[in-house]
Amino acid sequence: MGEKENNCTLKHKLNFQGIKTPCYVIDREQFDRNLFDIQSNFQREWGDNLGIGYSIKTNHLPQLLEIAKNKGMIAEAVSDEEYYYALEQGFDKRRIILNGPLKSEECLICALKNNSIVNIDNLEEIDMLIRRKDKLKNREIKVGLRVNFDLEKLCKGETATGEAGSRFGLCVENDEFEEAVNILSVLHIRICGLHLHFSTKTRSLKVFKILAEKICEISVKYRLLENIEYLDIGGGYWGGRTVKDRPTMEEYSKGISEILKKRFDSRKVKLVLEPGAALLSTIATYYTQVQNVRQIKNFSVVTVDGSLLHVNPLLNRRKLEYKIYASGKRSIPQQIVCGFTCLERDRILQLDNALELKKGDYVQIDYTGAYTMGFNNCFISSPPYIYMKEDEMAILIRDKKRKLMLDI
Ligand SMILES: *Cc1c(COP(=O)(O)O)cnc(C)c1O
Are residues 244 and 289 in the same domain? Predict the structure, then answer.
């Protein structure tokens, strides 16, 4: 029993036979294609001196970390826990990046001793280095610095934070970045890298060109050119599929490399990328099944066993891409596909003049591989099933707990 019953066949077109819902189905071949798109383009423009980080927070499934590791990716952690998790998952210590706005002194020192890539985010972390300098005495310490600058000023309306500005990194506009440079110089701690990562609404090529220009400008201004071993330009790319008016990896790689090459020798300096959504959003598809239908005034409420919280947990304002498998033969004016929770806001889709959905029908939501599973929780029900697609089969890799686990 067990295994055979849990897994199900995915014919060329998904036929749902035996599939349990709600579930995510992960397509590892899509992962391979997305990674290849990033890697091959940047390799062509920058060469082999390239590091591609796997953003753990974007999807922390151990099976995906295993794939990332075997593909030669670097693990990118933004907390102590993510750092130790990457170690546990077997990443080479030197192939883990420790980022993030909050590092414990213990984890920071551990990562430095491990020769992991460490990007300092704030002056408190420099104080930790001062306090622990003696313990690290016999080794050469080197760190990267995360840069904060006013990106919005140079691309109005594009950043996620707008005028308020990013809250991460050391600010170059006041004197915190300079202070960090000076203290590290006195301590004889080498600044071997620069790290920039910004969230934007547009993910535009212009943004990345500005980041590349800023890297050059800062390296010259603070006399870092000689010591720089890596340039980490972060995540925030568009990727995984081609969409009209959105930049491609070819454009990103050309735009970024062209500017950086004016100041840096790509044979000597490693270019590090940290693509989260671009690598992972298109690798998973979500399926949920209709459980009941009711009429409220002039519309149909179609309640499914899934939830908006599974596909858009931060409730961002965005249109979901979907497909419905309706058994009804006629179109009806208005159906609202709603989740199982008691939240009024748990409305997944509004369908206008679509085929009538009936009990037992399926609804598919595309591109659910990034920033979804990491947010799964035990609010009202336990997290969805997860399948991994292997050839024609969907292998169950996470079961849904029947009992609500409130103590985790
Ligand atoms: C979240 C994060 C990423 C991934 O960002 P995407 O926008 O998903 O590409 C990369 N680097 C850092 C430091 C992050 O915090």
Answer: no
